[in-house]
Amino acid sequence: MQHPTPIILIAAIGKNNELGKNNDLLWRLKSDMNFFKSTTSGHWVIMGRKSWESLPARFRPLPNRVNCVVSRNTDFQAEGAHLFSSLHSAIEKALESGAEKAFIIGGAQIYREALADGLVNEMYLTHVDASFEDADVFFPTIDDATWERQEVGHFESDENNEFAGVFFHYRKKAAGS
Ligand SMILES: NC(=O)c1ccc[n+]([C@@H]2O[C@H](COP(=O)([O-])OP(=O)(O)OC[C@H]3O[C@@H](n4cnc5c(N)ncnc54)[C@H](OP(=O)(O)O)[C@@H]3O)[C@@H](O)[C@H]2O)c1
Q1: Which stretches of the chain score pLDDT less than 70?
Q2: Which CATH number is 7-172 given?
Q3: 155 CA distance to ligand 1 centroid (A)?
Q4: What pLDDT is stored for residue 175 in this prediction?
Q5: Whose CA is nearest to atom 8 of ligand 1?
Q6: How far is the CA of 49 from the CAs of 11, 124, 174, in angstroms?
Q7: Does any ligand 1 atom lie closer than 6 A to the CB of residue 83?
Q8: Ligand 1 test: best mutation among 15, 86, 109, most atoms within 8 Å of CB?
């Protein structure tokens, strides 16, 4: 029997759940970029229109991945990506297509909707060891009663990484556990 496609959220967040500012990231973290690339390569990636626009032109579409962009504007042109009018329809398409894995890669609106609607059972969150007073988008509060997490790696602050960070794999707790 074919297994259903896991829908996995992946994000990097600051100490106060900061995600970005002025439609850009708040940091330059090569180790996190590499983790994102190796985790998502070969799979589907689903993102909001603003995150798509925030990608540098040379990384758009993200190579070796099926890029999916969500927008309410059905005329939006996302060259090299599939356009969907809702997050749910993008996820349905990934499931229908038998994708091995589909990743929700942001931004704030899309993460919020995915968590509020219970669309993900698994997350990779990089906890960046810094806070940012000027952030303008945030990840939702992570409920410890809902999620259990395991550290899967870390990096130090160095010439390639502005800040240190820890990679965590989150899984939704079984009901009643
Ligand atoms: N730290 C991280 O890991 C990370 C990851 C990704 C992004 N980011 C940051 O997050 C910020 C962008 O996030 P954001 O919240 O502003 O934007 P976003 O979630 O990337 O995109 C929002 C757009 O998606 C579309 N959309 C959202 N919900 C929809 C729905 N239910 N149905 C149809 N379309 C829907 C709308 O597009 P239309 O307006 O075209 O209808 C909306 O304006 C940037 O600063 C980026 O750098 C950070």
Answers
A1: 1-3, 176-177
A2: 3.40.430.10
A3: 27
A4: 77
A5: 107
A6: 16, 21, 33
A7: no
A8: 109
State both tokens at 147. 């999620």
91 lines ligand 1 (CB under 6 A): no
How are beta strands 147-155 and 137-138 bridged, if at all? unpaired
Residue-wise pLDDT for 42-61, tens only, equals 999 999 999 999 999 999 99
What was the pLDDT predicted at 174?
A: 86
Helix (H) or strand (E) holding 20: strand 18-20
Residue-level pLDDT at 2 = 58
DSSP bridge partners of 18: 138
- The answer, yes or no, to whether any atom of ligand 1 lies below 6 A from the CB of 71, is yes
Q: Which of 97, 94, 98 is nearest to 119 (CA)?
A: 94
Q: What is the pLDDT of residue 177?
A: 62
Q: Is the CB of 85 under 6 A from ligand 1?
A: yes
